[in-house]
Amino acid sequence: MAGDSDDDTLALEAVHAGAHEYLVKGQLTPAWLERSIRYAIERHRMDRALLEAEEKYHSVFDHLVEGIFQTSVEGRYLMANAALARIYGYDSPEELVASLTDISRRLYVREDRRDEFIRLMQENDVITSFESEVYRKDSSVIWISENCRAVRDSKGRLLYYEGTVEDTTQRHQAEERLRHSEALYHSLVETLPQNIFRKNLDCRFTFANQQFCQTLGRPLEDIVGKTDFDFFPPELAEKYRRDDLQVLATGQPYESVEEHQPPGSSKLYVQVVKTPIFKSDGTVLGLQGIFWDITRQRLAEEEIRRANTALARSQQELRAKNQQMEEDLTMAREIQLVMLPQQYPAFPRPGRASDSAFQFTHRYLPTGSVGGDFFAVSAISESQAGVFLCDVAGHGVRSALVTAMIRALVEELKPLALHPGAFLTKLNGDLYAILKHSGSPLLTTAFYLVADWQTGVMRYSNAGHPKPLHVRRSANQVVSLANASGQSQPALGLMENPSYQSSEILLAANDLVLLFTDGLIEVENAQNELYSGQLLLEAVRKRLHLPAPALIEDLIGEIRHFAADAAFTDDLCVVGMDFAGGM
Description:
Layout: E1 2-3, H1 8-16, E2 23-24, H2 30-63, E3 67-71, E4 77-80, H3 82-88, H4 93-99, H5 103-106, H6 113-124, E5 126-135, E6 141-152, E7 158-167, H7 169-191, E8 195-200, E9 205-208, H8 210-216, H9 234-250, E10 254-260, E11 268-278, E12 284-293, H10 295-309, H11 315-338, E13 358-365, E14 373-379, E15 384-392, H12 397-412, H13 420-435, E16 444-452, E17 457-463, E18 469-472, E19 477-480, E20 503-506, E21 511-516, H14 533-542, H15 548-562, E22 572-579
Helix pairs in contact: 10-11
């Protein structure tokens, strides 16, 4: 600005009004004018740089992942960025500031949490990783972690608090799931009769169950941190170490029969399975081993070999050995059958089984020495019976181990026994948490029902299992028990978080519910045709007025006749529940 007057007061008024400089006409020379223009250009450049810096600051401020805030001492938000509004579920920082006017009561789940925050700030002026549960706008609860400092004026008076907020909900949930998984894992390994241990990358023990501690005759604290060389003869310890290094190097399971010599004992033969333990990034963290004594089995095998060698010398001796082997196999099957329910609960309780409102019967036909089918019948309450049936795919030790796990889990889930859908949902989650570490989960189907003899109401849920049959004798009908939703539900242990739903029907007097595993229908005839579900329905309709034991026996006979070699190729389990009606 240029003027006629050189009055200083007028110059100050001009600057206050917005002028950057005041030039007196009497002093206006080319040099002054050049300097003023140069200064004006430089001021304009600086103003633009300041504006760009401010815009960049606001862009960073509003796009940070962490929330940023300023709050008054009284507990009111003075400022918040977009990230904090997003974490708390508000549409904008302005909405957050206007709505959250009382942090102590409106934000923290625990009302004393703000008092604890204030106390720590008064003591330290700075806090880090202050974790709390807070309410979002929609009243849902999340976990947050706060870092904060106190802002004071030049005289030390507290002005406000400012800091950052991070949403830690997923981390807390992951930690809770991990704690639950670890607790469940330890509960299971301590109930199994097998020896179980874990080792790190240095082949040192990091865990051992009580069975393994008893085998070594040492408490757990004397085992952790040690190696096989501290407990076994050098030649055995060296072999164990070579096997461990193979598993750690290849990341592949290892299974074998080994010699084993506990301290102070003679040599044993054990079945050993070692599997790698992986980190979340896929790298090997260590290994887990499980072994059990098969000395008797190994000695029997050696005895059979000796008998075969002596065959040329004595046919009679060979027949005797074969007879012994058959007796051993028969004993093994008998032991397996003893593990199944030997008697059923009566309703009402107490009462005689012959007068019970529910009459149960079953047939169990394993195809090998160890089966993968399992069922249980229990009295859940004075008026309600629970029937559980599952089928683990495959045969042998792995299927048997999974079946043992399921038996243990079913016992632990008794508090949920009245609710079939919730029961299978929890069973699936627990089984998934165990099997996901093995790298090769086994297909496991299951069906669970709860029936009340007083009301006739039966609730059930199906996890990928063949649909049981509802035999309605009074109506001359046989129908498959489908899910109420019409949708199938997945088998157990394959998915982490499916929700299994319950269905409900009303039983009439003289009704029969027939549960079975897929071994009943996965039978082929000489033309390679399967015994279909439709054939099964027709076969049951022809026999629906028979008592359940006779019906099941007759049905199995028909399917044997259908089969090409008159034999079942898979384990078979059939469970029948007759309902006499309310009393």
